[in-house]
Amino acid sequence: MMAGTPIVEDETPPTRDTTYYISDGNTVLQVENTLFRVHRSMLVKDKSTFDSMFSLDAYTQNTEDVVALSNFIAEGESDENPIRLHGDKADEFRALAWALYSLPAEIAVSMTIQANDLQLIHLARIAHKYQFRSTEMWALSALTQFHSNSPASGGGSPPVQNLVQITELSILCEYEPLRNAAVAKWNRLLGEGRAVAVAIGVAERLNLRKLLGLAYYSMMLKGREVWDSDPQLNARQRVRLLSGHYNLIKLCEDLPNTPPRLTHDSSCIRKGKCKNAFGALWKLVLTTKEGGLVGQVMKLQSADLLAKVMLAESVVRAYVEGNIPQLDLSSVEGAGEVQMHEKCLPIALAASQDKVKEVQEHLVEWFSDVV
């Protein structure tokens, strides 16, 4: 090529959509590099943004606006002068056309486990943008049902990228049921040690604090070699992991001596001794010791605070329900009289359950930017 010769970009002409370029349609739209020909009457359903776009009431009757209106109406009459929808994707508009033109039997499939969740994601996003309100709510409801019923792992698992998109969509549309379904699926993935770095990124970007805490916690348990080698983690996130590891080790060291606060039944007249007995049970479960029921704590990582409080809760539950032999609490330092009041036992279990919830809720707070 000679110097100074202008470079001419080869622009590929748009192509007609194979399904939704309808021969008797009266409006042509271009989305990305795809042409759609649909009926204008379909686009103005549900009092959408298109209704305002096509309405004469949107314009005042001065000369300039009449000219603008005539130019706008001319758009969409041919392939050469389509209405261009900027910022949208062809797959999104195709999903909208599917929703507008599908038969009831086709729509019904979307409320089952056989649904195409990516199609529903595209539909909900474009319906939200153009204010197809009832279509948006229907798509969000269908997505919630699909992701509430489908498994998070195995052959039925949707791609992680789809899960990222429904999480973003739930925030964009402020639709709490879908957000809860998405977070539940993230939690199951994290429990399997999958997509942890992706979950950290999504939770930070969308400010999902409980999910963020669990994601950092799951990554922390993988060990520093994994943190340092994972290309999806940045330097600040690695600092937060180090900080969390340090903080949680300290909490785990103090945990045997800090049982949950125990309230008492009104019939309990020896509250101090009852409290000591519960504290002895809590300490016995969480003290490192070879063998026996409580030896399970030795199998846990030193910073695995959540697993330790869950272990303690499960042993307290078994103790309260009489499913394990009476433990010898007398050997625990400071136990004193080791018999809890009978009616305080379910209160102790509830306190243990609250401790698990507290740790889950506040995990993110231990992963600060400063070690």
Automatic annotation (TrEMBL):
Residues 25-109 form the BTB domain. Transmembrane segments: none annotated. It comes from the Eukaryota. This is BTB domain-containing protein.
